[in-house]
Specification:
The complex is a heterodimer of chains A (1096) and B (204). Helix content of chain A is 14%, strand content 37%. With 1096 residues, chain A is mainly β. In chain A, the strands form 17 sheets. In chain A, strands 47, 48, 50, 51, 53 and 54 form a six-stranded mixed sheet that branches. Chain A has a five-stranded mixed sheet with strand order 5-2-1-8-15. Mean pLDDT of chain A is 76; it is low at 1-23, 42-46, 885-895, 912-1002, 1004-1029 and 1031-1096. In chain B, 70% of the residues lie in helices and 0% in strands. The chains are: A mainly beta (1096), B mainly alpha (204). Chains A and B meet through strand 24 and strand 25 of A and helix 4 and helix 6 of B.
Chain lengths: 1096, 204
C-alpha cells in the first residue's frame, strides 16, 4: 500500500523537476533536452532526496522506518524526518532510518530532508499503518535440555512480552531436525499470549526415537497475531539451532534400555556404535536397519506384541559382538475386580480383590496396589508377590476406633498406567465372624444346659445372631439366638427344652445381626443331659402258666424318651383289696416275673426305677374274664404286618391288647403284645420277628374294669408261601381200569400257608420217560384233578386202561403258590376178558375161512381143474398169449397164430443195402439185441434170417422217409417191445449210435440214448429180456410225426409187421400188463393185429 | 528337584567334615571326593545352561544359541591352551580352579538375584541356579581340603564382583547369566580334568 502511494506521488515530483530544469535551460535542443531530462532524472534519483521509505515494527510501539539515501549523501549526513500530518514532529537521524512512534491509522505525510544540505529536495512520503510490517524479533532459545530416559526434549524460551503494548496472541513454531540437521522430523506450532511481561515458555516433546540415537536440533520462530494491527504480519526469523546429543562413551549401547511399553504401540530402537551393525532382530524377527549418523542404526517396531516374563530381547549383531536391550511390552493394570472389604473381628478390615486382566509384567514392573481410606487418610500398600496369580489379592487395614463407615480406594499402578476401584462400606454390616471355638456345656437341669463359646473379636458395638444346631439321634434342630456382642469374646446362652438323659451334639455359627455371612460351623460338642424320673410305667402283660398256678408278668423296657435315664430295676407288687404286697425288685435286663397266685383277682403293678426315682406304676389285673363265644379265624397279612379289625365295643373301657405267638410253640406262648386305645377298632401288628410262611396265633383281648377278656383268636400268616413239601400219598387199590389214591395231611410248619387244595395229575407213562416232561405244559395227555375239598383224603381214578403204567403226581397248594410235586408210577391190572377175546376172534375167523375155502374148492373142483390144470390147454385161455389192450386195440378177439396171410419166407438180408437205412443198422447191431438172439437162435446160419410179412397197410399214409428207408428191402420190422418204448428218438439214435451195422442184426435192441430214458429202458429190458421184434421204433412212430414222443397212449400207435418172431414163433408177453386183456377182447389174431384203429 | 538340591548339600556336609576336623593325612580321599562331586556337577551343567537360556527369550532360547564373544571381565575364562594347562603345577591348577569357583559362586548368586526380577514365576530356574551355587561352594570346600592336604596355601576369599554388578540393564543381566552358566559348565569340565590328573597323581 505504501508502495502504491509512493508511486502515485512520484509523477508529481517528476513534473516538478522538469519544470525547474525547463526554466533554467529552455534553449536546449529538444533531443538534448530529452537526453538531459533522462540524465537529470537519473541524477536526481541518485543524489536527490531520500527514497523508498520502508517501515517495520517489532513491538507495535515504534516503527523503524528506513529509506534509501540519495547519492550525494555521505557520512555525516543528518536526515530530518518530519511527520507532517500531526503536530509536525520531526526526528533527526544520522542514519538512513529513524524510529518513530507508531502512528495512528490513516495516512500520514512524512518528509525526509537532509539537514544542512540545502538545495536538495525534500522527500515526501505518505505513510499508513497498512504499509508497516510487523516482524517480531528473532526469538532466542533460553535452554534446550533432554531427558534421555523418556526421550523427551524440553525447550525453554522468553517471549519478551514486555515490549508489546497489549495482550497479544503469539504463535510459536518449533522445528526439530535430526541426522545432522538435514531432516526436519517435527514442525509444531505452539500458541501463547503475551501480556506485557517477559514470560519464559516451556515446551516438551517426546521423541519416538531415543535421543541417544542421533543429534537432535531445535529452532524456534514466532508470529504475532494482533488483530488490531492492519499492516503486514510476518514470521520472525528462525532462532539459531540448539543441539542435543548424547556423548557416548566408548561402549556400544542400544537404546532404549529396559523400557516398559504398552502392547501394540510402536517403538524405535537404535544402536549407538562405532562398529558396523550387520543385523538386528527383535525376538526371532529380523528387522530392516535404518541408518543414522555414523554407524548408528535404528529399527522401527510396529504394533509390538506382549512380552514374556523376562521381556522381549532386541539384539544388534556386529562383526564380532552382540548388543541388545530388553523391552517389556505389557498392559496397564486392569481395574481391580470384585473389591470387597469385610471384617472378621471388628478390629481389622480385610479387603480382597481380583487383579483382572494380567499385565504380562512381573518382578519390579508388576502392579503395585495401595489401599487408601479417605476418611482417615490412612493407606496400606500391597506387598509385591513373587509370581502374579489370578487369585484373590488381599490387604489388611486396621480399623479406627469410632469409625464405622470406610471409603476405600484401591489404586493399582504399574509403569504403564494406573487404575482404581472404590468401595464404601459400613463395616458393622460386613462382619464375617471367625469360627466359634472352645464350646462348653454345663447342666442347668435334666432338660436345660448352658452353652458357652469363644468368638474372637470385639463385637461390643453390635448384636450377634448365632445359630445353635442341636443334634439328637435322628433329629436335627436349629435355634437362632441374638446376643449382644462383648469385648472379651466369651459368649454363653441357655438351651432348654431338651430331653433328659439324651446325647446331644451342639455346634454353633454366628453372624452379625445385620446379616452378611455366617461363620463356619464350630466343632461339634457332644453332651449327655442328666437323668429324670421315668415318665411312665412299663407296658405290662401277664400270662398264666400252663399249669394255671403261676402268673407270669411281662413288661417291656421303657423307650429311652420315657425311661429318662438308665433303668436300674423294676418293682413288682400285687394288691388285693387295697392290700399291697411288694413282691420283689427285679434288676433291669430281666423283664418278667413269675408270681404264685391264687385265683383271686389281684392287681399287679410294675414300677421302673432309675437313679433319680421311680416311674408311675403300671397296673394289670390277674384275672381273665371268660368268653364262651370264641371262634378261631384266619387272617393273612400284608407282607410286613397284619391288620386286625374288630367292632367297636363301648363296654371295653381301658384298652385292647393284641398278643401274638408262633403257633408251633408250646403254651404259654408269648412273643409280644401290643396295646391300642379303647376307641380304636383296628390295629396293624408289625414286628421284626414276623417271618413269611410261619403261622402265628393272634389273640385280641378287650379290657373292662381292669380285667381282660379274650375276644378273638386268629391264626394268620404275615405272608403265605407255597408248601415246602408234597403230600405223602399211597395207592390203596389198583384195578384194571382204576386206581385209588390216598394221601396224608402236610404238617403246618411245612404248609407255610392256608391249604387251598390239591392238584392231582395222571398220565400214561413209564418211569423213565414221563419224568422229564413237565406237568405245567398243558399237555393234553395229562389229566388234572383239582381237589378243593380239604377233607377229601382219597381219590379214585377211573376209566384207565388195563396193564398200563400210569404216572401219578400230587401236589398241594396255598395262596402262596404250588408246593412241590410227589409222583408215583402205578401199573393197572390186566384185563383178562379182553385178552381172551383178542385171541379167540382171529382164530375163529381163520377156521371159518379155511372151511369155506375147502368147501368151495371141493364143489368147484371140476372147474378148477379145467381152469388151472386142463388136460389140453386151451389157447384161448392162455393168458400168456394175451396181448395188451394197446397192442391189439380194436381187435375183437385175439386168436392163435394164423399163418395164412403171412407166408413165411426166409429172407436173407445181405449187406447190399444203401447207406440210407442206417437206422436199422444202428439198431440191430446193438449188442443187447444180439444176445438174446444168440442164446435163443438155434439156426446155424450166419445170415440172420428174419421172418417177414409184406406190410398190409390200410388207410395209412406211409411215412415217405420210412418208405425210402425201407424201400430197398421192403421189409418193415416191428418190434413188439418198441411199442412200449416209444420214447426212442430216431434222430438221437442216428447220432449216438453210430456203429455201422453189418447187415441185419436181429431182434432186440431198444435204441435208447437219453440218460433219463436209459434207466427206463434198462428197467424195461430187464423185464423184457427175451424176444424183441425186429422193427424200428421209428417206423411206428413216424407214422404220426406230430404225435408226442411219449406215446404211452397206445391208441396213437399203429403197429405194423409181425409181432411174432420166426425164431420163437411166439409172441412175447409184454413186460407189464398195463391194460387188462379184457379190452382186447380176449383173443389175438394177426388180422386183428393189423387192423388198426383210426389214426387219431 | 529336591534331590538335586539335597544331594550336594549332603555331599557338602560330608566333605567339609574332614576339613573342619583338622588335618587329613592323605590327599587321595579329598581328591576322590572332589572328583566325584565334579563328575556329578558335570552331569547337570548343560541342563542348567539350557534351562537358563530357555527362560531368557529369543535369541537366547533359540536352538543352538551360542555367543562365545560374550565374556565377563570379573569371571576368569576356563578356556586355556593345553600346553599352558599342562605346564601348571598342582598349586597353580588348584588355585585357578579355586579362584574360578569362588567367582562362580558369587556370580551365580548374582544371576539368581537377577532372575528373581526377570523371571519371578520360574521356580525351576531359580532352584537350579541355587543348586549350582551350592555345588560350586561344595567343590570349593573340597578343593580347600585338597590344598590343605597337599600343604598348599588357600587363597583368601575376595569379592570378585565389586560394584560393577549393580545398575546393569536387563539385557546385560541376561548376558551375564548366560556367561556365568556357560563358564560354570566349562569350569566344571576343567575341574574334572584337573581332579582326574590329581587323582592319577595321588592314587588312594
Amino acid at each position: 500500500m505504501m508502495n502504491i502511494s509512493l508511486r502515485l506521488r512520484r509523477p508529481s515530483r517528476m513534473v516538478d523537476g522538469k519544470r525547474m530544469r525547463m526554466t533554467s535551460s529552455f534553449q536546449w535542443l529538444l533531443l538534448t533536452f530529452i537526453l538531459l531530462y533522462l540524465m537529470n532524472q537519473v541524477n536526481s534519483q541518485k543524489r536527490g532526496a531520500p527514497r523508498d521509505l520502508k517501515c517495520i515494527t517489532n513491538n507495535l510501539q515504534v516503527w523503524d522506518c528506513s529509506w534509501k539515501a540519495p547519492s550525494g549523501a555521505g557520512h555525516g549526513t543528518i536526515y530530518e524526518v518530519c511527520i507532517e500530518s500531526r503536530s509536525h514532529s520531526c526526528y533527526q537521524s544520522e542514519k538512513t532510518n529513524a524510529k518513530i512512534p507508531a502512528l495512528l491509522p490513516g495516512d500520514h505525510e512524512i518528509t525526509i530532508n537532509r539537514l544542512y544540505d540545502f538545495g536538495n529536495p525534500i522527500s515526501k512520503f505518505t505513510l499508513n499503518e497498512k504499509n508497516v510490517s510487523l516482524i517480531p524479533d528473532t526469538p532466542e532459545i533460553l535452554n534446550l535440555s533432554a531427558d534421555f530416559s523418556t526421550s523427551t526434549l524440553h525447550l525453554k524460551w522468553n517471549d519478551r512480552g514486555s515490549i508489546f503494548p497489549r495482550h497479544l496472541n503469539v504463535i510459536w513454531e518449533v522445528k526439530i531436525l535430526r541426522k545432522e540437521n538435514t531432516e526436519i522430523i517435527k514442525l509444531v506450532t505452539h500458541n501463547t499470549t503475551v501480556n506485557g511481561k517477559d514470560t519464559v515458555h516451556h515446551w516438551s516433546w517426546a521423541s519416538d526415537m531415543p535421543l541417544e540415537c542421533t543429534t537432535h536440533s531445535v529452532a524456534i520462530r514466532c508470529y504475532v497475531d494482533d488483530p488490531h494491527f492492519s499492516g503486514r504480519k510476518e514470521w520472525s526469523d528462525w532462532s539459531p539451532l540448539k543441539n542435543i546429543s548424547w556423548s557416548p562413551d566408548s561402549q556400544t549401547k542400544v537404546f532404549p534400555q529396559d523400557k516398559v511399553i504398552l502392547v501394540g504401540s510402536d517403538i524405535t530402537f537404535c544402536c549407538v556404535t562405532q562398529e558396523k551393525v550387520l543385523s538386528a532382530q527383535i525376538g526371532q524377527t529380523n528387522c530392516p536397519l535404518i541408518h543414522l549418523d555414523g554407524e548408528n542404526v535404528a529399527i522401527k517396531i510396529h504394533n509390538i506384541s506382549v512380552s514374556a516374563n523376562s521381556g522381549t530381547n532386541v539384539v544388534f549383531t556386529t562383526e564380532d559382538n552382540i548388543f541388545g536391550t530388553v523391552i517389556f511390552a505389557g498392559y496397564p493394570p486392569d481395574i481391580p475386580q470384585k473389591l470387597n472389604c469385610e471384617t472378621y473381628d471388628l478390629k481389622e478390615i480385610i479387603c480382597t480383590w481380583n487383579p483382572g486382566r494380567p499385565t504380562a509384567l512381573v518382578g519390579p514392573r508388576n502392579t503395585s496396589y495401595t489401599l487408601f481410606e479417605s476418611f482417615s487418610g490412612k493407606y496400606v500398600k500391597f506387598k509385591r508377590v513373587e509370581a502374579p496369580t489370578n487369585e484373590s489379592y488381599q490387604l489388611f487395614f486396621q480399623m479406627r476406633p469410632n469409625q464405622e463407615i470406610y471409603n476405600f480406594t484401591l489404586n493399582a499402578r504399574n509403569p504403564l498406567g494406573r487404575s482404581e476401584s472404590t468401595i464404601l462400606v459400613n463395616i458393622t454390616e460386613k462382619v464375617y465372624p471367625r469360627i466359634p471355638t472352645s464350646i462348653k456345656v454345663k447342666d442347668i437341669n435334666s432338660t436345660a444346659v448352658i452353652l458357652s463359646w469363644h468368638l474372637p473379636g470385639n463385637f461390643a458395638k453390635i448384636k450377634l445372631l448365632c445359630q445353635i444346631e442341636i443334634n439328637k439321634t435322628n433329629s436335627v434342630q436349629e435355634r437362632n439366638i441374638t446376643i449382644r456382642g462383648v469385648e472379651n469374646s466369651s459368649y454363653l446362652v441357655a438351651v432348654d427344652q431338651l430331653n433328659p438323659y439324651t446325647v446331644y451334639t451342639f455346634r454353633i455359627r454366628c453372624s452379625a445381626e445385620t446379616f452378611w455371612k455366617w461363620s463356619k460351623w464350630s466343632n461339634e460338642k457332644k453332651y449327655l443331659t442328666t437323668e429324670a424320673i421315668p415318665s411312665k410305667g412299663p407296658d405290662t402283660w401277664r400270662e398264666w402258666s400252663s399249669d394255671g398256678k403261676n402268673l407270669i408278668i411281662y413288661w417291656k423296657p421303657l423307650p429311652i424318651n420315657e425311661a429318662n435315664g438308665k433303668i436300674l430295676s423294676y418293682n413288682v407288687s400285687c394288691s388285693l383289696d387295697e392290700e399291697t404286697q411288694s413282691l420283689s425288685e427285679i434288676p433291669d435286663p430281666q423283664h418278667k416275673a413269675e408270681l404264685q397266685l391264687d385265683k383271686n383277682d389281684y392287681i399287679i403293678s410294675v414300677v421302673a426305677k432309675n437313679s433319680v426315682g421311680s416311674s408311675p406304676p403300671s397296673k394289670i389285673a390277674s384275672m381273665e374274664i371268660p368268653n364262651d363265644d370264641l371262634k378261631v379265624e384266619q387272617a393273612v397279612g400284608m407282607g410286613n404286618g397284619i391288620l386286625l379289625t374288630w367292632n367297636y365295643d363301648p363296654s371295653m373301657t381301658c384298652d385292647y391288647v393284641i398278643k401274638w405267638c408262633n403257633s408251633s410253640r408250646a403254651e404259654p406262648c408269648l412273643m409280644d403284645w401290643k396295646k391300642v386305645p379303647s376307641n380304636s377298632t383296628e390295629a396293624v401288628i408289625e414286628s421284626d420277628q414276623f417271618r413269611p410262611g410261619v403261622r402265628y396265633n393272634f389273640f385280641l383281648y378287650g379290657c373292662r374294669n381292669q380285667g381282660y377278656q379274650l375276644l378273638r383268636s386268629i391264626i394268620g400268616y404275615i405272608e403265605e408261601l407255597a408248601p415246602i413239601v408234597a403230600p405223602n400219598f399211597t395207592v390203596e387199590d389198583t384195578s384194571a381200569d382204576s386206581i385209588l389214591v390216598r394221601w396224608e395231611d402236610i404238617p403246618v410248619e411245612e404248609l407255610r400257608g392256608f391249604l387251598r387244595g390239591y392238584l392231582f395229575y395222571f398220565e400214561k407213562g413209564e418211569r423213565d420217560t414221563s419224568k422229564i416232561r413237565g406237568l405245567e405244559s398243558g399237555r393234553s395227555d395229562i389229566k388234572v384233578k383239582n381237589i378243593t375239598d380239604l377233607s377229601q383224603k382219597t381219590l379214585r381214578i377211573a376209566d384207565l386202561q388195563g396193564k398200563t403204567s400210569y404216572h401219578l403226581v400230587l401236589r398241594a397248594y396255598t395262596d402262596g403258590g404250588m408246593g412241590p410235586e410227589k409222583s408215583m408210577f402205578v401199573v393197572t391190572k390186566e384185563n383178562s376178558v379182553g385178552l381172551i377175546i383178542a385171541i379167540l376172534i382171529p382164530v375163529a375167523v381163520a377156521v371159518i375161512v379155511g372151511v369155506v375155502t375147502s368147501i368151495l374148492c371141493y364143489r368147484k373142483r371140476e372147474w378148477i381143474k379145467e381152469t388151472f390144470y386142463p388136460d389140453i390147454p386151451n389157447p384161448e385161455n392162455c393168458k400168456a398169449l394175451q396181448f395188451q389192450k394197446s397192442v391189439c386195440e380194436g381187435n375183437s378177439a385175439l386168436k392163435t397164430l394164423e399163418m395164412n396171410p403171412c407166408t413165411p419166407n426166409n429172407v436173407e438180408v445181405l449187406e447190399t443195402r444203401s447207406a440210407v437205412p442206417k437206422i436199422e443198422d444202428t439198431e440191430i447191431i446193438s449188442p443187447i439185441a444180439e444176445r438174446p438172439e444168440e442164446s435163443s437162435d438155434a439156426e446155424p446160419e450166419n445170415h440172420v434170417v428174419v421172418s417177414y410179412c409184406p406190410p398190409v397197410i390200410e388207410e395209412e399214409i406211409p411215412n415217405p422217409g420210412v418208405d425210402e428207408a425201407g424201400g430197398t428191402s421192403q421189409v418193415i420190422y416191428i418190434d413188439v417191445q418198441s411199442m412200449y418204448q416209444p420214447q426212442a428218438k430216431p434222430e438221437e439214435e442216428q447220432e449216438s449210435d453210430p456203429v455201422g451195422g453189418a447187415g441185419y442184426k436181429p431182434q432186440m435192441h431198444l435204441p435208447i440214448t437219453s440218460t433219463v430214458e436209459d434207466l427206463a429202458a434198462d428197467a424195461d429190458l430187464d423185464k423184457t429180456a427175451g424176444y424183441r421184434p425186429q422193427a424200428n421204433v421209428n417206423a411206428w412212430n413216424l407214422v404220426s410225426p406230430d404225435s408226442p414222443r411219449s406215446t404211452d397212449s397206445n391208441s396213437e400207435i399203429v403197429s405194423f409187421g409181425s409181432p411174432c418172431s420166426i425164431n420163437s414163433r411166439q409172441f412175447l408177453i409184454p413186460p407189464k400188463d398195463e391194460d387188462s386183456p379184457k379190452s382186447n377182447g380176449g383173443g389175438w389174431s394177426f388180422t386183428n393185429f393189423f387192423q388198426n384203429k383210426p389214426n387219431d | 528337584l529336591r534331590f538335586s538340591l539335597t544331594a550336594p548339600l549332603c555331599l557338602l556336609t560330608l566333605l567339609l567334615l574332614p576339613l573342619s576336623l583338622g588335618a587329613p593325612i592323605s590327599p587321595a580321599e579329598p581328591i576322590s571326593q572332589a572328583y566325584s562331586l565334579a563328575l556329578y556337577m558335570q552331569k547337570n551343567t548343560s541342563t542348567l545352561l539350557q534351562t537358563y537360556l530357555q527362560y531368557q527369550g529369543s535369541p537366547f532360547s533359540d536352538p543352538g544359541f551360542s555367543a562365545p564373544e560374550l565374556q565377563l571381565s570379573s569371571l576368569p575364562p576356563a578356556a586355556v591352551s593345553f600346553k599352558t594347562w599342562h605346564a601348571l603345577d598342582d598349586g597353580e591348577r588348584l588355585g585357578h580352579a579355586q579362584g574360578a569357583f569362588l567367582a562362580l559362586t558369587q556370580h551365580l548368586q548374582l544371576v539368581g538375584d537377577d532372575q528373581r526380577d526377570l523371571n519371578p514365576g520360574s521356580p525351576i530356574l531359580l532352584a537350579q541356579l541355587g543348586a549350582a551355587r551350592l555345588r560350586a561352594q561344595g567343590l570349593l570346600g573340597n578343593m580347600a581340603a585338597i590344598m590343605t592336604a597337599l600343604g598348599l596355601p588357600i587363597p583368601p576369599e575376595e569379592d570378585t564382583l565389586g560394584v560393577v554388578a549393580f545398575g546393569a540393564s536387563a539385557f546385560e543381566r541376561k548376558c551375564r547369566g548366560y556367561v556365568v552358566t556357560r563358564e560354570y559348565g566349562h569350569w566344571t569340565d576343567r575341574a574334572v580334568r584337573d581332579l582326574a590328573l590329581l587323582k592319577a597323581k595321588y592314587p588312594g
